[in-house]
Design brief:
Layout (H helix, E strand, L loop, with lengths): L1 E6 L2 E6 H4 L12 E5 L5 H9 L23 E5 L15 H16 L2 E6 L2 E6 L5 E4 L2 H17 L6 E3 L1 H12 L5 E6 L1 H6 L1 H12 L7 E5 L3 H5 L34 H4 L8 E5 L5 E6 L2 H19 L5 E7 L7 H12 L2 E2 L2 E2 L5 E8 L1 H15 L12 E7 L16 H6 L9 E5 L7 H10 L1 H7 L6
């Protein structure tokens, strides 16, 4: 038997089996849930695994040489099948996005996940979570109030932490001593939501600061390329293709300006930059096929926007407003340095708009701090032996006959964004990480960038 639950602009069917197991007061011994649209949110989990900014005895600020979350364990969920979240706004499907997010919250609050054997899925048991950390800027921007209301309506006393407040707070702390323009580098969806500017301005008012100068850039395709989304990056390609969705000469919304090719300085090794040629060998279109080239395109686009709009003062703070972007932190810093020093006809093109040092704000650490404070405030710190961590990912539900897949086994772009909210269909299955649903190259990236997370993952699967 099922009953209707209203959340935001849509209705979901929730089984009574979940409704009858409401956890009015969460058990301290339960795991913490960490959610993102993909693997980018693992940067937040890495921060939680390594945070040492509080005294574990008193809870007061100050490192004590012990991890603040030393007794906690986690369930991580990547909604890989439905990502990138940043494109739902452009496709006018934010109601569908919210529906996906609420379904993911139900997964945390429910007690089963799926295991796939060939094309057959079977249910396995898991625990509920005692707190949810939304390690996704787009989900926070569009659905945080909906998530909190949904959890409360279901009767769960589960704290929900969002990532945007944390990033904004860190940026303004830097601005209190270093006045400049704050750049927001986020997904196109997060930028469209106006979540960061709205939060930054509200927090500045609360702190008695002047309204900050803010400039935003939607990093269309960057998170997708980091997570190896077929529509934006295929490492085996040898030529341009019609199925490409990222910035290009022909893309009217994200156009590569051929007059700025010397400024972009795209990487051209192997197949990192692809051209569509005519019969004479002339390049008619340019397609990006590597994350660093997406970084180059978007940072140049951001600074060109500042030049064209005469934005002042110079940008000295850049919020990495997508949890995938810290993976590219070194590249972002390198490209900003190149652009600061770029000269054309003996003149520095961007020095009036770009500070020599740009503080890169990674909201992960601030989010981890807020999560720790929330655990203490709600008396939820684990006081027993911790259990093992679990890493889950959504994959296409191939038992749903209408499902349309790309050659790599994930949803086609058209099917992903062509679905309609309220259809009450199980588009995805929630399964553990394995070597099929996440590539070897991605695990290798975790090993280098997120060593503590990687160490926990290898306890669950053989790599």
């Amino acid at each position: 038997m099922k009953y209707l639950v209203f959340s935001g602009m849509f209705i979901l069917l929730i089984s009574t089996s979940m409704a009858q197991t409401h956890l009015k007061a969460p058990n301290k011994k339960l795991p913490v849930g960490v959610f993102d649209s993909g693997t980018g949110g693992l940067t937040v989990l890495e921060a939680m695994l390594t945070l040492d900014m509080f005294n574990n005895e008193t809870g007061k600020p100050g490192a004590d040489g012990k991890p603040d979350f030393q007794s906690e364990f986690y369930q991580y969920l990547a909604d890989q099948a439905n990502m990138p979240y940043g494109n739902y706004a452009a496709e006018k499907k934010t109601d569908l996005l919210k529906e996906h997010i609420i379904k993911n919250m139900n997964f945390f609050l429910n007690t089963t996940y799926s295991v796939q054997t060939q094309n057959v899925f079977s249910n396995q048991q898991k625990q509920q979570v005692k707190m949810i950390v939304i390690a996704c800027n787009t989900a926070t921007a569009y659905a945080l109030p909906d998530i909190k209301k949904h959890v409360e309506d279901l009767g769960y006393n589960v704290p929900v932490i969002g990532v945007i407040d944390a990033g904004s707070k860190a940026a303004l702390q830097y601005q209190q001593k270093n006045i400049g323009t704050i750049g927001v580098f986020a997904t196109a969806g997060t930028v469209a939501s106006n979540g960061y500017p709205r939060t930054l301005k509200a927090m500045a008012t609360q702190l008695g600061m002047k309204e900050p100068s803010i400039i935003s850039q939607g990093g269309f395709g960057l998170a997708e390329s980091i997570d190896r989304d077929w529509s934006f990056y295929v490492d085996t390609l040898t030529k341009a293709r019609n199925t490409y969705k990222g910035p290009s000469v022909k893309n009217l919304n994200y156009t590569i300006d051929t007059t700025l090719l010397n400024v972009y300085r795209f990487n051209k090794n192997r197949n990192e930059l692809l051209c569509e040629y005519d019969n004479t060998g002339k390049c008619l279109d340019i397609q990006l096929n590597e994350p660093a080239n997406y970084v180059r395109y978007h940072l140049v686009s951001l600074l060109e926007k500042m030049r064209n709009e005469h934005v002042q003062p110079a940008m000295n703070t850049l919020i990495l407003g997508c949890t995938h972007y810290p993976y590219m932190k070194d590249t972002i810093a390198k490209v900003l340095n190149e652009l600061y020093n770029y000269q054309l006809n003996g003149e520095y093109r961007y020095r009036a708009f770009l500070a020599e040092h740009v503080e890169l704000i990674d909201p992960s650490v601030e989010t981890a701090k807020e999560a720790y404070i929330a655990l203490r405030k709600n008396d939820l710190l684990n006081n027993a032996a911790k259990e093992g961590n679990h890493f889950f990912i959504t994959i296409p539900n191939t038992s749903l006959k209408e499902t349309q897949l790309q050659p790599d086994g994930w949803f086609t772009y058209e099917y992903k964004y062509g679905r309609v909210a309220g259809a009450n269909k199980d588009y995805v299955q929630f399964v553990p990480f394995n070597t099929k649903n996440i590539s070897t190259a991605t695990y290798n990236r975790f090993k280098v960038a997120l060593p503590h997370v990687y160490g926990e993952i290898v306890k669950t699967i053989k790599l």
